[in-house]
Amino acid sequence: MSVGVIACGAIATHIASVQKANNLDITIYPLPPLLHNQPTKIAGEVEQLLISLAGKHEKFAVAYADCGTYGALDEIVSAHGVKRLGGNHCYDIFAGEKEIATIMESDAGTYFLTDFLVKSFQRSVIVELGLDRYPELRDDYFAHYNRIIWLAQNPTAELEILARHAAEQIALPLEIRIVGESVLEKQILELLN
């Protein structure tokens, strides 16, 4: 069965890795990852893509958590009879909802990074928040954070350097937790069945 997977661009390469490892017959349609900076647009973009791809596949799935849509994405997937990944955000997708809840219970001032955010931190965070032009805004955005946890899917020495640089830029201590892609893989396989 041919399945079209509408995916957050921030996790599309990880889904492709799961696809390859499991020999899945899916076509991935990534949406721009910067939609996360305007989450009110995510549901509409997903719906537009579902409509434009209608009839192209036997089945569709949405590879997004809620991602700040506050239920709007759930309304879209329900209206179109498709399923989405579980969780509130991609951190749940990589580490599991239980693990993220435990981390947040121990310190609600935790800022998370994924491999994608580590690679794109300069563009996704520094430039998008204007910190490259107005570094004094750092405290406006990050004063209530106490630490950064990088939920590393495929850690490398290069990514660790970038993660440490990201932490330095916003003056927070970095903790690295290797989570891999197994939670995502399990969710993708459940989503497709």
General description of the model:
This protein folds into 2 domains: 101 residues, 3-Layer(aba) Sandwich (Rossmann fold); 84 residues, no CATH class. Helix content is 46%, strand content 18%. It is built from 9 helices and 7 strands. The protein has a 4-stranded parallel beta sheet with strand order 2-1-3-4, sandwiched between helices. The termini are close together. InterPro entries: DUF1638.
What's the SSE blueprint?
Layout: E1 3-8, H1 12-22, E2 26-31, H2 42-52, E3 59-63, H3 72-79, E4 83-84, H4 90-95, H5 97-106, E5 110-113, H6 115-127, H7 138-142, E6 147-152, H8 157-169, E7 174-178, H9 182-192
Parallel strand pairs: 1-2, 1-3, 3-4, 5-6, 6-7
Helix pairs in contact: 2-3, 6-8
Domain DUF1638: 31-186
InterPro entries: DUF1638
Pfam families: DUF1638 (PF07796)
CA radius of gyration is 17 Å
Q: In this structure, how is the largest beta sheet organized?
A: 4 strands, parallel
The count of DSSP E runs of length 2 or more, i.e. the number of strands, is: 7
Overall mean pLDDT score? 95
Q: Tally the structural domains.
A: 2
At a glance:
The chain is an alpha/beta fold. It has helices spanning 12-22, 42-52, 72-79, 90-95, 97-106, 115-127, 138-142, 157-169, 182-192, and strands at residues 3-8, 26-31, 59-63, 83-84, 110-113, 147-152, 174-178. Helix content is 46%, strand content 18%.
Which structural traits does this protein have?
193 residues, alpha/beta, 9 helices, Rossmann fold
